[in-house]
Specification:
Response regulator, DNA-binding, about 210 residues, 5-stranded parallel beta sheet, alpha/beta, Arc Repressor Mutant, subunit A, 2 domains, Rossmann fold, elongated, transcription regulation
């Protein structure tokens, strides 16, 4: 999902058209406040102040990217970026700045602080959307890793110990001997690990965590 944040209605509409012409799903925001309001709804039920700004935010499994204008009324693009960077979910939201000539130094500084890229107006449409696709892929990978980390967090301490030994290629008997537990207990832990990590084999588990 491409998130377009720009207070210039004409440019915002043009970017939406460019995205849709490339079969790229997008949502547009007229201000940094509106975009941040949508982010504030993430993980909530969509009610309350956040919902007054925009629809409830949710991540796209195929990745997300933010096109953000540097200079906007109200909260500027740079201020919006700084507030976004404070959120844990920011790593799944690579930001590409759109900037006028006079704002290039600010965009370069944001790039040094973690922005994905910036494009100076007037920009080449294809070059911009090539970078959007790269940012979406980065976001997709980050989203996949976030899911893996959440699964790992659900493992018990003992299950993590068994997991480490499974990844070393050790069989159940060796794991039981090393941890001082029964083979049956190892089998139970292994089954729980596979269930929580949503895999069926040790090979699949290793591939997930490579």
């Amino acid at each position: 999902m491409l998130h377009i944040v720009d207070d210039d209605a004409d440019l915002r509409d043009a970017l939406v058209w460019m995205a849709k012409s490339r079969q790229l799903p997008c949502v547009a925001y007229a201000s940094g406040e509106q975009f941040l309001g949508a982010l504030a709804s993430y993980g909530r039920n969509g009610s309350g102040t956040a919902a007054e700004h925009a629809a409830q935010f949710s991540f796209d499994p195929k990745g997300d990217c933010v096109l953000l204008d540097v200079r906007m009324a109200g909260i500027s693009g740079i201020a919006t970026f700084d507030l976004l960077a404070e959120l844990p979910i920011s790593k799944r939201l690579p930001v590409i700045f759109i900037t006028g000539h006079g704002d290039v130094p600010m965009a370069v500084d944001a790039l040094k602080r973690g922005a994905f890229d910036f494009f100076e107006k007037p920009f080449n449409d294809n070059a911009l959307f090539d970078r959007v696709q790269e940012a979406l892929e980065l976001s997709r990978q980050a989203g996949e890793m976030a899911v893996v980390y959440q699964r790992l967090a659900n493992l018990t301490t003992r299950e993590r110990e068994v997991l480490d030994l499974i990844l070393l290629g050790k069989m159940n008997k060796l794991i039981a001997d090393q941890l001082g537990i029964s083979m049956r207990t190892v089998e139970v832990h292994r089954a729980n690990i596979f269930d929580k990590m949503e895999v069926k084999t040790a090979v699949e588990l290793a591939g997930l965590l490579k």
